[in-house]
Design the sequence.
């Protein structure tokens, strides 16, 4: 994953534009047959290792753009599975959750049966515009500036699962049940219940990935819990309006760290006609290149 343009190369291979299989024609000939070549320029304004799933999101956008450039297309579910292949080619060992969250707009729950090959079935949840705004007003994003490579984190998680310790097996079952509870809370517009699910998930995550919470982040959470009061602990993620945020975060942000507001977009991956960019929901351009209008 650390090689130059590794993600873009894997996207081109996954789209079938070129092949490196044994017996494949030389690259120059393959590009000539594909129309003379391909120029892809990509960028992301997210910090590397931010934990926001930028590699999976970028892979989905790049593949969508490449396919459009060659007069092809891929539906949402197929694109989600294609990103799975890219992640495996990159040897990051990633799953499917990051690209689902970005390529399909709005709220959703995604399920997959415990069998191979993995088949992902996303389900969009009803999210009224008024409730989406209320939820967004209670969200805060704080970036600690501590990058981590997903490959290393996932390797630890997989080792935990292979151990089949009772605590790990019980936590995995709890993760599934908690996801369903969170989906019900969203459907029922129950912010309090949703906040409880988020807190539960954070505890489960620390069981599956020991060390995933740096000491500084733990101290920050303790400070926020103290400031918000025991009664409102669930509001760590869903508890304050815009005015209150400024009161307890202060001018420098949260614990001296920059904080950002969050908006929710219910539109899936799309491209604006007349522009040369494909956008993920609620984000700025993630891919740039020359494309003819479709």
Sequence:
């Amino acid at each position: 994953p650390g090689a130059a343009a590794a993600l873009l190369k894997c996207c081109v291979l996954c789209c079938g534009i070129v092949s490196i299989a044994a017996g494949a024609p030389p690259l120059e000939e393959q590009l000539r047959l594909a129309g003379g070549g391909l120029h892809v320029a990509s960028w992301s304004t997210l910090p590397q290792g931010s934990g926001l799933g930028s590699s999976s999101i970028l892979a989905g956008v790049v593949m969508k753009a490449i396919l459009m450039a060659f007069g092809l297309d891929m539906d949402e579910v197929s694109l989600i599975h294609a990103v799975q292949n890219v992640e495996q080619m990159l040897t990051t060992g990633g799953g499917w959750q990051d690209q689902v969250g970005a390529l399909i707009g709005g709220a959703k729950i995604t399920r997959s049966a415990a069998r191979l090959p993995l088949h992902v079935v996303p389900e969009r949840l009803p999210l009224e515009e008024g409730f989406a705004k209320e939820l967004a007003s209670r969200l805060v994003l704080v970036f600690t500036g501590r990058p981590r490579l997903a490959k290393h984190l996932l390797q630890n998680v997989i080792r935990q699962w292979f151990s089949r310790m009772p605590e790990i097996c019980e936590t995995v079952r709890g993760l599934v049940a908690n996801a369903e509870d969170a989906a019900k809370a969203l459907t029922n517009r129950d912010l309090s219940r949703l906040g409880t699910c988020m807190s539960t998930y954070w505890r489960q995550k620390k069981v599956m990935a020991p060390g995933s919470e740096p000491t500084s982040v733990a101290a920050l959470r303790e400070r926020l819990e103290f400031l918000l009061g025991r009664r409102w602990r669930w509001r760590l993620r869903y508890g304050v309006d815009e005015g209150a945020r400024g009161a307890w975060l202060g001018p420098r942000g949260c614990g001296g760290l920059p904080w950002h507001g969050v908006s929710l977009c219910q539109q899936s991956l799309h491209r604006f006609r007349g522009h040369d960019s494909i956008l993920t929901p609620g984000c700025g351009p993630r891919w740039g290149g020359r494309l003819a209008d479709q």
Summary: Residues 166-187 form the longest helix (22 residues). The two ends are 32 Å apart (CA to CA). Confidence is low (pLDDT under 50) at residues 230-248, 279-294.
